[in-house]
Design brief:
Oligomer: single chain
Strand content: 25-35%
GO biological process, one term: nucleoside phosphate metabolic process
Protein name: RNA pyrophosphohydrolase
CATH architecture: Alpha-Beta Complex
Number of domains: 1
InterPro entries: NUDIX_hydrolase-like_dom_sf, NUDIX_hydrolase_CS, NUDIX_hydrolase_dom, RppH
Helix content: 10-25%
Function: Accelerates the degradation of transcripts by removing pyrophosphate from the 5'-end of triphosphorylated RNA, leading to a more labile monophosphorylated state that can stimulate subsequent ribonuclease cleavage.
Distance between the termini: 39 Å
CATH superfamily: Nucleoside Triphosphate Pyrophosphohydrolase
Family: Belongs to the Nudix hydrolase family. RppH subfamily.
């Protein structure tokens, strides 16, 4: 990374670890990385709008990416976790403004039915789809499914919420 990018701030973001009743976690396969192997999966996450409360942002991002609104807050990660975006993936405005992302993570229990999940037309098509596939996954497998530069953050999130997961 260039010295200039090292001096940039992190973009404030949120993430949601959504658990189903069996203690499995929602993961979606990123549409923009389809075909890149089995490391294009991630949990719902996205940026905070100006002045937005992190929990409000987490609920908004969850709905915008999965259509899920039936979710109860069960835990909040104790810290903000950060990662740098590699130079070859940082482009445009992001490259000039941010070095990476810092995320506040929330664990939520999905209280709806799987039919509520609609990754093709989240919120009735109000938002473009981010995922091209989804599944419920064991927490102990999550870090291995994410792109390598985000793995240290996922490991911390998994450790923070491990007590909520199904045991293998």
């Amino acid at each position: 990374m260039s010295h200039d990018r090292d001096d940039l701030p992190y973009r404030p973001c949120v993430g949601v670890m959504l658990f189903n009743a069996a203690g499995l976690v929602f993961v979606g396969n990123r549409r923009d990385r389809a075909g890149d192997g089995d490391d294009a999966w991630q949990m719902p996450q996205g940026g905070l709008d100006d002045g937005e409360d992190p929990l409000t942002a987490a609920r908004r991002e969850l709905a915008e990416e999965t259509n899920v609104t039936s979710a109860a807050l069960i835990a909040e990660a104790p810290d903000w976790y950060s990662y740098d975006v590699p130079d070859d993936l940082a482009s445009g405005r992001f490259r000039r403004k941010w070095r990476g992302q810092t995320q506040k993570w929330f664990a939520m229990r999905f209280t709806g039915d799987d039919a509520e999940i609609d990754i093709e037309r989240p919120l009735g098509g109000a938002h473009p789809p981010e995922f091209d596939a989804w599944r419920w996954e064991r927490l102990d497998r999550l870090a291995g499914l994410i792109v390598p530069f985000k793995r240290p953050v996922y490991e911390k999130v998994c450790a923070a919420f491990a007590h909520l997961a199904a045991t293998p």
